[in-house]
């Protein structure tokens, strides 16, 4: 055996036997490829006709382009006779015609150097049979006719219309001009640069929408998407004008070939988005995106000095809408609550402080509290804001400071409560309140296990306290075998109300409250209208009587 020292890659002649599997043979692919060939040939229009036969459909695609000079190039996979300018601008691969592989096809063409007609049988595509070259006396251009199996009603029409929609030449089908559209018609702004038309879209991004128009061939590519923080989402679509280095993966042309041209296009897309945002009255770019924006424009402004007004979150919030952003007030402060217990506790303290609005703290050190936005960390104006977290609480009884926690004490009734807040610089802010709720060892989902402190002079009534407990603790289960939300909420409200009555009015009042709610929920509806139930019940027996509503005394 001879030892090789050099060799070159080549295409095996056997590859032609597999040509029918290079394309998937759909009408979408066929029309896309034939339309592209017509455009490259300098055609001014494309005419498509269809004749429905008994067992097939005869489809004809006709153009008035330059025609085909050499029939050998047409049926040579990977070979093409496109002029040098076309090869430079688009890098044609000489494969598009083979989208018809396996179909009975007739090609008739007239060029400046001659004319011919080829009748290609299905098995001739793989090189298994000769193809006769016949004379042809027709006008300048190319006509391709092929048989295609009948498809679902309207499929052929939809395929032609889709291929023509963003194609640069007018197309007619069975004598009717097909509608064409600008690929970037709905763009917020269109920017033309380096052979591309880049459309920037506002709040319209879908992974199911084509994002690139390659001379009529549309495909999906994940171009940059920039989302402002709880604000506008910006995306792009690209219309190719003249970009010779941006090419598609062969043979299917369903994705962009990754090279430096694609990297350059992605950079252009990001630049286009940032240029549009720059012209907006305000933006809410994350700090990281803002740094990138400054790479394209040195004087790119910072994000607007706005944050969402702080509002308490509840344990049952699976999805909590972000409150509306508002301009920062001079006393703007951030509060970063850790969970629903913390949030409900702080929300009660703010309401009690008479700050005038739910997010404001009244008193000698008034503050306006805002939600934290971690994506803004790094902006000088954001980092300058005090960001408080709750670091403790203190209780006072008869003028003495009590321990912050007592083992096994689920309920406390001090004279005064103060929650302690600390910011990122170590500065402390104390806020007077009448209510604190904390998570007990087993309190998640159980109001009886939550640790609650309520001042003796609190103005909260049992209904108010019940609502606070529900907001802090109730987190419904979404398991498939769980009860409905309403059933879970009703059961939890009964338990929370019993706990609230026990704290404010004592155990007997809690027992009566529980009985009253159970009666109202399960029994009261059975009492006929105009009648009254008199009830006596004990462990030794019971007595129930229905009387007229005007008789007897209420029991």
3D structure, described in words:
By secondary structure, the protein is of the alpha+beta class. The protein is built from eleven helices and 28 strands. The protein has an eight-stranded mixed sheet, covered by helices on one side. Strands 17, 18, 19, 20, 21, 23 and 24 form a seven-stranded mixed sheet that branches. Helix 7 packs antiparallel against helix 9 (462-473). The longest helix is centred in the last third of the chain and has 21 residues, at 485-505. It is elongated, with a radius of gyration of 38 Å. The N and C termini lie far apart (112 Å).
Q: What is the number of strand segments? A: 28
Distance between the termini: 112 Å
> What's the overall geometry?
elongated
Q: pLDDT average, as an integer?
A: 88
Q: In this structure, how is the largest beta sheet organized?
A: 8 strands, mixed
Number of helices: 11
In angstroms, what is the radius of gyration?
A: 38 Å
Q: Enumerate the strands of the largest sheet in spatial order, edge to edge or round the barrel.
A: 5-4-3-6-2-1-7-8
Low-pLDDT regions: none
Q: Based on helices, strands and strand pairing, what is the structural class?
A: alpha+beta
Helix content: 10-25%
| Percent of residues in β-strands | 25-35%
Short structural summary:
This protein is of the alpha+beta class.
